[in-house]
Amino acid sequence: MFVNRTFELDFLRQRYESGRAELIVVYGRRRVGKTRLLQEFVKDKKHIYLIADVSENILDSFSRVVSRQYRFVRFDNWDDFFEFLSAVDERVVVVLDEFQYLYKVDKAFPTILQRWWEVLRNSKIMMILCGSTISTIYKISLGYGSALYGRKTAELEVKPLKFADIKEFFPNYSARELVEVYAVLGGVPRYLEEFEDTDIMTNIKNKILSRTSFLYNEPMNLLFEEFKDYSRYFAILNAIAEGATRFGEISDKSRVPQNKLPKYLMTLEQIGIIKRTIPVTEKKSRRAIYRIADNFYRFWFRYVYPNRSFLEMNEIDYVLDLIKDQFNAFVGQAFEDVAAEFLVSRLRCPVGRWWYKDVEIDLVGLGKETYFFEVKWKDLSYGEAARILRELEEKPKKLELAGKRNMD
Q1: 396: buried, middle or exposed (CB in 10 Å: 19+, 13-18, 0-12)?
Q2: What is the pLDDT of residue 257?
Q3: CA distances (Å), origin 248, targets 245, 276, 289
Q4: Which domains, and CATH codes, for the chain?
């Protein structure tokens, strides 16, 4: 299913219509819909769509694909391939999907492309390099000092869908059910496609907790592929899932030394799995906390990873009962994100959490006026709602006090 992606398609179409040579890096996590986006983009355009892999004879595969659209060609080396492209005298989109594999097979590939781009930059070629292994993508194309740094004409990160987009996957779900499924799966299209039009707990049981399901080992498989020292990333994510949110707590619980922890945290944040958060009123702060930003990873490390022994013994109902007992509390954090997304679209200003010592405000909006919100995922009586409102009215006084102390 292809949903939304209006911004991404408009961006690519504008680049295409420029008529100039383009070298664009499209990147994002696996399963997020990059290939589907590019297929949608090129469907009405002259294009060469090439999917890379780690085979030694990848150029033979490329030769066969190109020969079906042009004259018969045979690429014995990368120079042959790029020389062919340099002779193409028409607007054509060339997609190298999973291009990080080309680097795995031949470490010289980025340098060869860098050299040939000096020729192709005067052509009509629109070349799109699409990759999923984000740590490798940064190394060869995005990071300062990489072979393609300064050569690429643009970059586009394809991010998970927002909450507002997922209703198209579940047209029969209520608003409550949509929040629940978003809390479990997040906005990754491939994961959303796994769930069927049935209740949330049945989907969790059959599509996540079952050892034969696609999602059962998904985070583990992706971390194995992304990182060589995956065990430390596992330890860090497990520590955060168990409630360690501050730097020192994460180091202690994961047993990753504090002098090495920043590298791992930065990488996990870079690929969108965790998020470093500071109070919304501050630009810099030592009071940062970390949380798992990807909802499915958060669910998996909370309920699947620590209970794998039970699940491997097919004790699915036992784990499902654990989930049912804690589910409303679990959904609550994701509901804050849903509320923040909604408020940003309405208030058109920064919205985020605020805390100081033992005082927390779920969401604060910093517009021409300052807005304060408490977000609760539970049924409240009138009395409970009134009490929460009274407490909220007192909290901004603490915010003002904290601001004065930070200025001193």
Answers
A1: middle
A2: 96
A3: 9, 14, 10
A4: 6-157 (3.40.50.300), 163-346 (1.10.10.10), 348-407 (no CATH)
Alpha helices in 258-302 (DSSP H): 261-270, 295-299
Q: How far is the C-alpha of 226 from the C-alpha of 234, rounded, in Å?
A: 12
pLDDT tens-digit series, residues 136-187: 787 777 766 677 877 889 999 999 999 999 999 999 999 999 999 999 999 9
With a CB cutoff of 8 Å and minimum separation 6, the contacts of 219 are 296, 297, 300, 301, 305
What mean pLDDT comes out for the span 88-100? 93
Q: Is 261 within 8 Å of 251 (Cβ atoms)?
A: yes
Dihedral of the alpha carbons of 348, 353, 356, 357, in degrees to the nearest 10: 170
- H helix intervals, 158-307: 175-185, 189-192, 200-204, 218-226, 230-241, 247-254, 261-270, 295-299
Q: How far is CA 301 from the centre of its chain?
A: 16
Tokens of 108: 């010289």
372-396: pLDDT as tens digits: 999 999 888 899 999 999 999 888 8
* Residue for token pair 């601001």: 403
What pLDDT score was predicted for residue 138? Answer: 76
CA distance 56 to 62: 12
